[in-house]
Specification:
The complex is a heterodimer of chains A (509) and B (284).
Chain A: E1 15-16, E2 34-36, E3 45-47, E4 57-60, E5 63-66, E6 70-74, E7 98-100, E8 117-123, E9 126-137, E10 140-147, E11 158-161, E12 164-173, E13 176-182, H1 184-188, H2 192-206, E14 211-215, E15 220-223, E16 230-231, E17 234-235, H3 244-255, E18 261-265, E19 270-272, H4 277-281, E20 289-291, E21 294-295, E22 300-302, E23 323-326, E24 336-341, E25 347-352, E26 358-360, H5 365-376, E27 383-390, H6 403-411, E28 416-419, E29 422-423, E30 425-426, E31 433-437, E32 447-449, E33 453-463, H7 464-469, E34 478-479, H8 480-484, E35 489-493
Parallel strand pairs in A: 6-35, 8-34, 18-24
Antiparallel strand pairs in A: 2-3, 4-5, 6-7, 8-9, 9-33, 10-13, 10-27, 11-12, 11-14, 12-13, 14-15, 15-16, 16-17, 18-19, 19-22, 20-23, 21-22, 24-25, 25-26, 27-31, 28-29, 28-33, 30-31, 32-33
Helix pairs in contact in A: 3-5
Chain B: E1 5-8, E2 14-18, E3 21-29, H1 31-54, H2 56-59, H3 72-86, H4 98-107, E4 115-122, E5 125-130, E6 135-141, E7 149-156, E8 163-167, E9 181-186, H5 189-202, E10 211-214, E11 228-232, H6 238-257, E12 263-268, E13 271-276, E14 280-281
Antiparallel strand pairs in B: 1-2, 2-3, 3-4, 4-5, 5-8, 6-7, 7-14, 8-9, 9-12, 10-11, 12-13
Helix pairs in contact in B: 3-4, 3-5, 4-5, 5-6
Classes of the chains: A alpha+beta (509), B alpha+beta (284).
Amino acid sequence: MTERVGASTVGERFEAAEPVVVAAKPPEKMAANKVLCDACPVLCQISEGRLGACDRWGNVGGKLTRMDPVLLMKRPGVEVVASGHAAWRGEWINDAPVFVSGVGSGTTYPDYKPAPFIVASRHQGVDMVTVVTEGIFSYCSFKVKIDTDRYLGPEQATVRYDGEAVGHVTTIEYGSQFLSLGGVHHLTGGSKREGRVTCALMQKLGNREPVELEIEGGARLTVEAGRAPIVNGVEETRMRVGCGSATIGIFAKQWYGHVDEVVVVDDHITGVLTEHQAGKCLDMPASGIRIRGRKSTPGRYFQVANPGTGWGGTDITDPLSIIEGWDPDVARPGLRLLMVSTTGEHAEFFVLDEKLRPERTPMPDAVRKVVERIGENCEPALATVLFVAGAGGSLRAGVTENPVRLTRSIKELLTRVTCGGAPAYVWPGGGITVMVDVTKMPANSFGTVPTPAIVAPIEFTMRRDVYAALGGHVDRIQRVEDVLARADVRLIDWDVANPWPLAPQENAR
Amino acid sequence: MNGAVRARLSDGRWHFQHGPIDLVIGADGDSAAVAASVEACWQAFPDVLPLLVRELAQLRSPCTPALRLSGPVAREMLRACRPFAQDFGLFVTPMAAVAGAVADHLISHFARPGVTRAYINNGGDIALYLTAGASFDIGLVADIDAPRLDGGVRVEAADAVRGVATSGWRGRSFSLGIADRVTVLAADAAAADAAATMIANHVDVDSPLIRRAPANSLRDDTDLGDRLVTVHVPPLVPALVREALDRGASFARACLERGLIRGALLTVQGASRILTEHEIEALA
């Protein structure tokens, strides 16, 4: 359950009634796959994957789990007395080992109300404040980088999910294709269904679930943050080492002496060794090869074939199809030709016969070694997902009465922005536009509201004096110890790959 | 085990919570009288759930003539649900009125001098307290996935309406029908709650497009057993919507004639039917 409609209740300050003697007894017999929820007198027996009568507690993997807890994170090696533990007396143990994240924190509405949690802690003797909330974002999207040279679709093509337009294909960067998914235009600018489907897609992407996308006039994709993309049913394994020309440039010297010509087949720039600057530098004689496509600079060819899922991101399955012929005045029988793709996944070795026809020949070990090195230099192909959102709006009022001071404090690196504890890159320029790698955030950080909009955690951490100076809600500061003592919190381990948010930032002004 | 808790909302209303019970309570009048009422209500609140739990097995069983219950809330649940079993021969358990009956039980604490009006909203099932000249305007929302105020009703002290309840397939409780919303006005919240559930069950039509699943495949301990409950309703052609509304309206009319309800508003995919002695106006 990541839908957290009406999450604002979480930020309420509850007081407890006198305990009442509970009438019901736990059953003596209970199916083994159920858990008994003793959170209230109803004593629901909950099967795996289901919720109890209250929708607040459920059976997750055989464990009774609060479905909407506030997520706290503990640095490793630190002992924290469990909340509700008899020994807990509310005093602090040591140097701020716990960070309160926005995940499950809820939100306050309207915006002028202080954020659900404004938490005081100490880090290395410095009083720190973290303002914790969940932002409700309509103005947000996911930028997806898909490491592939395979053709995904034309730039600007519509990307569909569950039949609805949810984004578009944007630019190709070196070895990767970018998609922009979600955004306010699809969330609220189209039909009601488009909005709902977009919202569902965004939540899944953010929560690192696989999603199946279809690009108009292009490929079908399965994308999951941090995993290899699947293009038209084929899982990508590695990125190309570079374009065809770059591959020639990198490996020319290693081929030298073992082959007379190399063609690196690539959808963008196919490289031809003897014509290429690298071959010239090695004084390699011309081979007489004639390549299809549009010549760019010497040894570099555009559009040798159509884009596709064959050799080097083209549609070809037989590499010889891109060779128009051989210049009989230059080419000679016995010439050794290597054709290889930019990932080394496809490679064939030929020798020209008496009639200057390439004949497939077993690849010599010395050549194979270089082909394997191309593969070795290709990094694993991944789909990576960044959450991009503008937090510069009314959300800031939950932090301070004078929102622009928060913006300035962030720009001056006095205030650190995190999303579920993960470091957020703040774009230069106006506003607080953040960009976060979703794989650095805790599982299931993203929720939705029916608007439709995305719910995402965001935390602002700064020194207490900085918080006071920017007009913060200092009267609403509570101790992290008191947050830790609540019943509706869950403590997980801090991801040590992330910088500790309570530590001061370098170069702070 | 977590006991009952309460929190004061920033606009002065109260939120009481205990297990599956979530109440939002608002009251107007002399501040001391309101505070005393809230306090009395709070004192009574922690006992409500344990008393219901004591009879939970019976509360989840059909309302047969033989069924006997002892708790005050449980008896009101049975009273509200029994007509649907006896008069209409329908399957119903007292649980159909649990939310309304809890709200009714606690609203009584506001009946003291100085309080002009009060309400207890138990997840959409609302008990009202009104003194002479007082009224409540209640806003209505058809689609909780895309909430928008699309209707409203004014309940005045002179109306014999002290309960307003809403049921539909999109809500937290299961429905056998396809109504996005059935809102019922009745003499008390328990009666409104039971009737809203039963009318919503009748707002139905046969179509293979409508996805249904056995209730006990979705939630443990449901009183509905393996009865098919609505899981998904795709956009339907107007003729099917009309037929579903016709079926629901005919049942609602029977409830109205028997005096079980004072009015009902049925909505399916933007189309509505109003049955009333009382005015329910669609807001422009």
